[in-house]
Design goal:
Elements lengths: L17 E5 L2 E7 L6 E8 L4 E4 L6 H14 L5 E5 L5 H4 L2 H8 L3 E3 L1 H11 L8 H9 L4 H10 L15 E2 L5 E4 L2 E8 L6 E6 L4 E5 L21 H12 L7 E4 L5 E2 L1 H22 L6 H8 L6 H20 L4 E4 L5 E4 L5 H5 L14
Amino acid sequence: MNKALQYPFSAPPGPGSVTTIQPGVLWVRMTLPMKLDHINLYLLEDDAGWWIVDTGLRGEETRANWERVFAGHLGGKPVIGMFCTHCHPDHIGQAGWLSERWKAPLWMTHGEYYVGRVFSQTGAEGPFWEGMDFYRRAGAAPEFLENIRLRMSGFSGMVEPLPRSFHRVRGGDGFVIGGSRWEAVVGHGHSPEHLCLLNRERRLLISGDQVIPLITSNVSVMAIEPEGDPLADWLESHRRFLELPDDVLVLPAHNTPFYGLHARLRYLIAHHEDHLAALEEACVTPSTVRELLPVIFRRTLDAEQTTLALGECIAHMNFLLRAGRVRSEPDAGGVHRYTAPDPAVAARARTATHQRDDDPVMV
């Protein structure tokens, strides 16, 4: 599925070391304590110092690796600013520490900063009936609901307190760094207002989690907005990103840098459209979200993966509901079952070749 992609780097840098993408553009990799075991971060050199793009998770290991990078690869220059692409913990986890360490300001989109502030300061306190009800409606088993309750502590353990101020980035904003212009390109769906950085002169796109070569970013509905439609935002973003130059080297937050932006975008669009068709076909038989998971995820899911998979499946069902392609009715216990209103949909949907994810990941 990735034959159209090309990977110019044979191996990633080790933790605490760097790979030079171009003069003044460095690739850093940090470890993550999960199945997706790494994140790619980037450094951009300016006359006065360096800009960091994304920060890694909170923790002593990440800090130690950053200190090795600072000591060995900045040429005596300071860090003068940070961009965080979006609000997930592996991207903002060390932003507070780095800002304090270097007295360096944080640049983010409005939506990502404030969602990050909310989630990083939310613990297990307060009523949680909404969250339990969200997963109950999806058909989750009682033991799963108890596991969710015990794990609900927000991002606080993975994120240093964020800086109390930030500089707002809007789509189309430009930043001259190292003598060339980086343009803010904003996507949606994986997170509220995801920042990517495009350099047309250098033919580089720092894509964060918006475009990744080997895995599909999680597109989930969460309990905080149960009727959200992030998949519509995701598909719109990818179609709009097809207007970007195709000859850029894409610098993603996971896997390795690659060429083939348009091919990857078209694959991701087709991937989700195929999932929609498969789910619509399956709903010829009334089904809960939990019962629909095997339609798009074929491997056995652990508790963390099941949470992500439920959120992604709900995102697809909300899209289908808004399009009138399925309808939803609660049963006596409040569990929602989805039905395709047109029985002929099965014959149409079966013409698709359904592509099922092996590994739902929150990236």
